[in-house]
Amino acid sequence: MTLPVGARADLTDEQWAVLEVLLPKGKKPGRPAKHPKRQLINGIRWRVRAGSPWRDLPARPRAG
């Protein structure tokens, strides 16, 4: 299986399944989240690994 360059270090489905249950659920009504939590976690991991400013995060379409 070949992964897109930007997705090389993204969480696998198995890793996400373990982490997702540990994240807090939204309790208040209001504006929906702009980005899925998985995409945010992958962005944080990329930022820490690459050491680049947030503005340098690669643009990727939102995953379902």
Q: Could you write a compact summary of the structure shown?
A:
This protein is mainly α and about 60 residues long.
Question: Can you characterise this structure?
Answer:
- This protein has two helices and no strands.
- It has helices spanning 13-20, 37-50.
- The longest helix has 14 residues, at 37-50.
- The radius of gyration is 13 Å and the shape is globular.
Shape: globular
Rg calc: 13 Å
Q: Largest sheet at a glance?
A: none
Average the pLDDT over all residues and give the rounded result: 78
Order of secondary-structure elements:
HH
Helical fraction? 25-40%
Query: Alpha-carbon distance between the termini?
Result: 20 Å
Structural class based on helices, strands and sheet pairing: mainly alpha
What's the total number of strands?
Answer: 0
Portion in strands: under 5%
- Number of DSSP helices? 2
Segments where pLDDT lies below 50 for 5+ residues? none
Quaternary status: single chain
Write the layout of secondary structure elements.
Blueprint: H1 13-20, H2 37-50
List keywords for this structure.
single chain, 64 residues, mainly alpha, 0% strand
